[in-house]
Each structure stands twice: as structure tokens, then as C-alpha cells.
Amino acid sequence: MERNLVSNPSIYEHLLGKLIGTYERGPDPSLGDFQISVDAYTDPVRFERERALLRTLPTAVAHVSQLAAPGSCLAHDALGVPVLVVRGRDGVLRAMLNVCRHRGTRLVEKAGFSKVKKGFHCVYHGWTYDLEGKLTHVPRRELFPTLDECAHDLTALPVTERFGLVWVVGTPGERFDFDSFLDPLEPDLAPLGLESHVVFRRGTTTARTNWKIVMEAFLDGYHVRHLHKKTVGPYFEGHQSYSEPAGPHVRAIVGRGGFREAIESDAVGDIRDIATPTYVFFPSTIFVAQPGFVSRATAYPTGLDEIYWEHDLIIPEEPEDEKAKAHWELNYELIQNRVFKGEDLWVCEQIQRGLKSGANERFTYGVEEAPIEWWHAELERRIEEMA
Ligand code: FES
Ligand SMILES: [Fe+2]
User: Fold this and answer.
1) Quick check: 45 and 214 in contact, CB under 8 A?
2) Which ligand minimizes its atom distance to the CA of 346?
3) Burial letters 82-113, b for 16+ CB under 10 A, else e
4) How far is the CA of 252 from the centre of ligand 2 (A)?
């Protein structure tokens, strides 16, 4: 069979084969239904352990195009520590804590993207750092006879650029082996060539819900035709889904309407026209390969019952004209506002409201929700390891 599947046929051929199998034979018989205790979402002690774990793992906070030029800076607060990600004059991307080394003042006050000219100047006593985080000026230097300047550079955090995304770990001092962590999804993400893409728009919001309830919504193919019936549900008419673990992450694919017919007639072009690959990078980065664009979203836990949501709609190139812009506006409105915010996050808030009602001691999950069990097991294992 002749097929033209993006540019790395092996992983997409594999997913396609598995998806055809679920259409023909139903879900993998080795998977079972299962339950999870509601305490998992309501226990504050457990939540603090989760947040501590999250600070030791990579999270995608931006697309490389948003931090491309020297001096491009992102002040980001949702990792549990205040972070600056900045492109140095030398072209190297660095992450550091947004905290002055004199007496701790926040250096860049406003969260979000900005352009920094020379470096960072502390408003309190005027200590100054360059774009690389080096302490370059201490007013009235003679007041600090024993000061070791080199030991007072901004505190560095591990950061890397991979798959066109910027990944940061919120724990100072440590080195992080990004490669072995992200490698399992290299075959899927590399062929998409996201390095050369741009962000059409970033959407952010908060939602009153536990972060794990949100992650579950993106590990579940079962809800698509129901919750999303007025938006994207019809695109997935008669859908089946297939999921598998990829290292600590999850790789999944959901068939779109016409999947069977396209397979039977051999009319398969880009896999994204007939199915939607969806990934969860453990723990909290969501990645959806939509037809013609991708969504990278992250659910940052900011409280036991609150998340900060960040979604970059990533497109192949800057819109050339008004028509192209209007096309992406429509996609943004559909995916960010109507689907993610209006349906997925909305339903998570509805769950949160009844969490402590006593209706459920445990939640019940079916076979198609199996990735939720894998993800919880990974979380559990890593929290135990940390203890
Ligand atoms: S706290 Fe920054 S210079 Fe004093
Ligand atoms: Fe959904």
C-alpha cells in the first residue's frame, strides 16, 4: 500500500496499524477497567509532594520562535518558582530564577514575554545582571568588602530546546538529562519540524480544578464524541482510539470521521487528515497534532483546586494575508476558547465541584481510559522514589 505519512513513516505506520486493529477488533483485550480513589485529588499533603516532583521534571513553557532573538525574555511564574528564560547575546538560551541575589527582589516584575536590552536591573538597591545572568554591577561596591561576585550570579535552572519547544526544570543547581527523558517521543515529534514553526497566539486562563483531573481529560479518548459533540466531536464520528506508553509519556491516536473509508481506498495522505495523534509528556505537557497545526498546552498546578492553563497554537508560518489570519483566528477560537476552555476545562470544574460530595469514593474508568492508569502509576512511582 502506497502512503504518504508525514516524513517518518515508521511511527505513523505503526500507529495506523494499531488503530486499524482497534477498528477491526476493538480495544486491546489485555487492558481492563479500573478505579482511582477520589482522595488522589483532594489530599493536600499528596498535592505538595506532586508539586515538589513537578519541579524536578521538564515542562514546556514556550515555543522557540517566542524566544528567538537575543534579549527575548519570558518571565514565568507557574512552575512554583519565579523563572526567567532569556536568549543571551551569544545566542544561548538560559533559564534562571527571577530573584535578585542581594536581598531577593523580583527582577522582571510582569509575567510574560518582553524584550530586555542590556540585562536586569534590580529596583531596590540597583544590583545589575547581564543577559547571561552574570552580576555586573554593585552600587557602592566598597560596602561589601567580602562579596564574591561570581557566587552571586542569577541562579541557573536546567533548560533545553527540543522539538521546537523550550523545556525548563524548576530546580536550581541540578543538571538534567533531557535527552533520555524526551527521546521516547523523538520519532513522533521530530518529523513535524516544529523548529521552523511560529506561534499564532498564546491563550492562558485559570480553572478551578485539580491538575490531575485536567491531565485525565487529555489521556481519555472516550469523551470526545460526547463532551465535544457541538464542536470537534463530529470530526471524530464513529471514532476509535489507540494508546501506548512511550517511556514515562503517553502516545495516543484517535481516528477521525472517514478513517475506515480512507484506509479501505488507500487514500491516506497526511495521517493528521484521518486521525489525530495526541501526546502527554509526563507530567503536564499536552501536545495535539491537529490537521495543519499543533497545540502545545500545559496544566500547571497552582493550588490543590486550581490550575494555570497555557496553550500555544503553533502554525507552520506567519499568516501571509488577512485570509490566512482569519483562518487561524477561527482555529484559535474553536480550539482554545470553545474546546479547551469551554468544554475540557469547564467539565473539569464541574467534576471539582462534586469531588468532596461523597457521591464517589472512587472513580471508575473503562478500557479506553487506560492511559490515565499508566499516568497515575508513573506519578505514584516517582513520588515514592522521591520520598
Ligand atoms: S534586593 Fe536587589 S539590589 Fe537589593
Ligand atoms: Fe477533550
Assistant:
1) no
2) 2
3) bbbbbbbeeeebbbbbbbbbbeeebbbeebee
4) 13
Q: Determine if the pTM surpasses 0.85.
A: yes
Of all ligands present, the nearest one to the C-alpha of 140 is 1
* C-alpha of residue 339 to centroid of ligand 2, in Å: 7
Span 247-303, pLDDT tens digits: 999 999 999 988 888 888 877 778 888 899 999 999 999 999 998 999 999 999 999
Ligand of minimum distance to the alpha carbon of 254: 2
The protein residue with its alpha carbon nearest to ligand 1, atom 1, reads 103
Report residues whose beta carbon is within 6 angstroms of any ligand 1 atom: 100, 102-105, 122, 124-127
- Domains of the chain by range and CATH? 9-54+199-386 (3.90.380.10), 59-175 (2.102.10.10)
Helices (H) and strands (E) in the chain, counts: 11, 20
SS (H, E, C) 15-51: HHHHHHHHHHHCCCCCCCCEEEECHHHHCHHHHHHHH
Alpha-carbon distances, residue 141 vs 118, 145, 216, 320, 344 (angstroms): 20, 8, 53, 52, 54
Task: Give the Å distance between the CA of 147 and the centre of ligand 1.
Answer: 14
